[in-house]
Design goal:
Layout (H helix, E strand, L loop, with lengths): L5 E2 L2 E7 L4 H12 L5 E4 L7 H6 L8 E4 L2 E4 L1 H31 L14 H7 L2 H11 L10 H12 L10
Parallel strand pairs: 2-3
Antiparallel strand pairs: 1-2, 2-4, 4-5
The structure holds glutathione (GSH).
Length: 170
């Protein structure tokens, strides 16, 4: 189902039509990626100004409006998520390469906080259950032991500590 709101601070709105297989394809892709977006049902007999302005050549749905910029063609909407995922992985790799090593100060540390957890561990660690659910739904592994060995080991350690164990579901 479409949900109102924004995702990661970015406003997403889909212009659609319930019966359109192209719209359904776009909606399923957005839903499986766990994105939150507004949904506006269009009428093909009375197209909204926003649809005509956003897709001036074909005037077809679906159109995904991302921070005011339209993405037309269902295939582009489906692909768009892949690029976003690539960016997310790049952010995590930076986190692994720079933040974790920086926090460890060149030594083997268990957590961002060193020997014990700090705020960074708690904030990041709280996302692990959600991340794992997304990985399962999308069929991808984001924090894997080959690509991000430090973060993968940290995630296991974080999950195992008292106070976290049993709170983050597997
Ligand atoms: N190639 C487009 C096809 C989209 C399409 O054909 N949408 C139809 C609804 S199923 C539409 O908006 N038709 C309006 C019109 O032709 O005026 C896509 O994949 O997004």
């Amino acid at each position: 189902m479409a949900r109102e709101g924004a995702s990661g601070g970015e406003a997403l709105t889909l212009l659609g039509l319930w019966a359109s297989p192209f719209v359904i394809r776009a909606r399923i892709a957005l839903n499986l990626k766990g994105l939150t977006y507004g949904y506006t049902e269009e009428s093909l007999y009375d197209k909204s100004e926003l649809l005509v302005k956003s897709n001036p050549v074909h005037k077809k749905v679906p159109v995904l409006i991302h921070d005011g910029k339209p993405v037309c063609e269902s295939q582009n909407i489906v692909q768009r998520g892949r690029r976003q995922r690539g960016k997310r992985i790049a952010v995590l790799e930076t986190l692994e390469e720079q933040a974790f090593k920086e926090c460890c100060k060149g030594q083997q540390a268990a957590f961002f906080g060193g020997d014990s957890v700090n705020l960074v561990d708690v904030v990041l660690g709280s996302l692990l259950g959600w991340l794992q659910a997304t990985e399962a739904i999308c069929g991808v592994k984001v924090i894997d032991t080959t690509r991000m060995p430090l973060l993968a080991a940290w995630a296991e350690r974080f999950r195992a500590i008292d106070g976290v164990k049993g709170v983050i579901t597997r």
